[in-house]
Amino acid sequence: MSAPSMLELFCIFFYIGLFTIGGGLVAITTMQQIVVGRGWISGEKFYNMVAISESTPGPIGVNMATYIGYEFHGVLGGIVATFGEILPSLVCIIVIAKFFAKFQERPLVKAAFKTLRPVTTGIILVACAQVFSLALMNLPQQFFAAWKSSFTSVESATRFLAGLFKWKNVLFYAAALLLLLKTKVNPIAIILCGAAFGILFL
Fold first, then answer.
1. Strand (E) or helix (H) holding 132
2. What mean pLDDT is reported for the chain?
3. Alpha helices, DSSP H, located in 5-59
4. Which of 57, 35, 55, 56 is nearest to 46 (CA)?
5. d(CA 166, CA 139)
6. What is the largest CA-CA distance in the chain?
7. Angle at Cα 39 formed by Cα 33 and Cα 40, nearest 5°?
């Protein structure tokens, strides 16, 4: 399938920027549905982009827009996609800054925010689950191929569960999580170790 045109690229990221409520992780879910769903980028490549965008300075949603735009149309594509992504937020925040103080105590506004919070949390969890499954598990191919025959015996079930996870990744993830929670190690060091781990062992 051919890559989107510059106009289509702008419209896609304008749409993403306009309807993304909850930050960059919510935007990632929408980006994934569009660019991977339409076959423009593979799922694995998309989540490699997520890893790089999360590891570099700046908002992850904007970084992803720039990266995807560059992937399709070079520097100009990166600029167009980024501008499309940030334009709705720029307009909205100017309008909100001007009028929100007058309306924030109204019941309808409060009710809207009470609804948006759990919805946004759910969308973020979807993005996290997708990244988690791709990075740490052999899904979907391994799962569906082995599901029917996996539980005919204890041995087959054990083999199935052993093959379900990418164990090197799981162990590195657990070690990194433990270091972040129990020590004062700089997260940048963890990111650099993750890059080195991927180069050496994956």
1. helix 107-136
2. 83
3. 6-19, 24-31, 43-55
4. 35
5. 10
6. 66
7. 95
137 pairs with which residues across the strands? 165
Name, in order, each residue with C-beta under 8 angstroms of 86's C-beta and a sequence gap of 6 or more. Answer: 17, 62, 65
Q: End-to-end alpha-carbon separation of the chain, Å?
A: 29
For residue 170, the one-letter residue type is V
- For residue 79, the one-letter residue type is I
CB 1 within 8 Å of CB 34: no
pLDDT tens digits, residue range 159-189?
A: 766 777 888 889 999 999 999 999 888 888 8
**Residue with more model confidence, 115 or 81:** 81
CA distance linking residue 91 with residue 18, whole number of Å: 10
Determine the Cα–Cα distance for residues 66 and 97; give it in Å rounded to an integer.
Answer: 26
Q: Cis before residue 140, ω within 30 degrees of 0?
A: yes
